[in-house]
Recover the amino acids of this structure.
């Protein structure tokens, strides 16, 4: 093999290594840029959900439904982004980050189910089917309680690994 061939092979190997480093850095950057948006949407969803509950208690069903829909949209937005990260970048995150992402996904799935039950309860209360509405509201409350267990687990992961989470 000539020196020229060796030089070309060496340059190709360097280019491939450089490309791999750039791709890994860009995927980590994408994840890091997405996380604040995801977190903000979850906080907004929680706020909207809590407002929906308060509005139901005050028998303001139309505005309560609007808040429930908004909560659902925020939760779904975060869930879609997390699923995207999990699908596209799972090779670029460590085990702790994978655990964090799967914990948040489970939390969001439960919150989305809770919003569905909340919306069903609102529809029942609108037509004075209070017993059924109360049952749906109770199911929503149970789902939110279960979701808060995942939220606590998520907070513990961050607390135990503060060097990984900014």
């Amino acid at each position: 093999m000539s020196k020229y061939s060796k030089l070309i092979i060496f340059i190709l190997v360097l280019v491939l290594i450089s490309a791999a480093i750039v791709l890994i850095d860009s995927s980590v950057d994408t994840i890091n840029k997405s996380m604040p948006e995801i977190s903000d949407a979850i906080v907004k969803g929680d706020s909207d959900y809590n407002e929906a509950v308060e509005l139901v208690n005050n028998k303001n069903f139309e505005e309560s439904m609007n808040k429930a829909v908004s909560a659902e949209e925020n939760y779904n937005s975060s869930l879609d982004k997390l699923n995207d990260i999990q699908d596209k970048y799972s090779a670029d995150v460590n085990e702790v980050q994978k655990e964090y992402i799967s914990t948040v996904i489970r939390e969001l799935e439960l919150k989305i189910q809770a919003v569905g039950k909340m919306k069903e309860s609102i529809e029942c209360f609108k037509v004075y089917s209070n017993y059924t509405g109360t049952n749906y509201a109770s199911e929503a409350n149970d789902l939110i309680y279960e979701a808060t267990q995942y939220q606590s687990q998520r907070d513990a992961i961050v607390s135990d690994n503060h060097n990984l989470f900014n």
Remarks:
- The two ends are 50 Å apart (CA to CA).
- Residues 49-166 form a domain with the Four Helix Bundle (Hemerythrin (Met), subunit A) fold (CATH 1.20.120).
